[in-house]
# Entry
Amino acid sequence: MKINLGLHLGFASTRYNNPKIWTDIVRNEFNLDYVQFVSDLIEPSLPEKIINEEIETTKFYLDKYKINLKHSFTLPRKNYIGHYNKSVNQYWISWLKKFIKISAKLGAEGAGSLLGIYSFDELANNYKDTRKRIISGWKELSIYAEKCGLKYLIWEPMSVKREMGDTIREIKKLQKELNERSKIPILLNLDVDHGNVVSKNKDDYNPYVILKKLGNFSPSIHLKQKTKDIYSHKPFIKKYNKIGLIKPDKIIKVLKSLNLDEVTLYFEFSFREREPYDSLAIKHIKESVNYWRKFLNESN
# Structure
């Protein structure tokens, strides 16, 4: 199995939004070959002329630094196709199609998002209809994605029922429903920190069990250090690794037991817009890369 190490570009969306700069950082600071592009870097609602200019600039620097853009993902949290208003719902389908097109032009093989997020009202009073609307919307997206040349779509299971895919059982059920008559496969983008922590089944928030049971359907995986407090998206730096629940050797062992030819692990970190955290992003990502690279080298 080939395990790629990459970087989710959410950290760069306001700090280093110029592709000339973030590609240089990815190559010369981190020496990474893979990135997961995010919608904040080329906003799909921008005029088409601006979008195409940004795509061409981004492609130039990706080629210059020999960086692979295999996957893309949306930012930030929105209700998307789960919105109660059908007109807003259709807007998000159109927006997601634009993002799919951008991703394909940048060379991605898979593009993704959250499936859709329920409001508390929709969850309590309109659960089934909203679910049908979300599933139907993703099937429509799969038709468009195939026309754009993508190999598959990806979605990220979350940690509460309202955001969809909070338990292993529910993820499997959604996968079955999504892929009935979809034009291309709709796969997963697992996250080692996700899962419903109030589930009666402890497997639902055990990252190693989740990977074991669902990893075969996840060509991309989000990495961050997980601790017992609620705040997550921590980098793999010494002070967090001492108390952290995510152990690279254990993750790698599970991945190598799967029936996958290739998987890409993306560091997905959040750095608060407060000092010193805001200015430490590059330093902490670099430490995280070196930490994981050591384990990957030892496993080969």
User: Anything to note?
Assistant: The radius of gyration is 19 Å. The longest strand covers residues 2-8. The beta strands are 2-8, 34-38, 68-73, 110-113, 152-155, 186-191, 220-223, 262-267. The domain at 2-299 is CATH 3.20.20.150 (TIM Barrel).
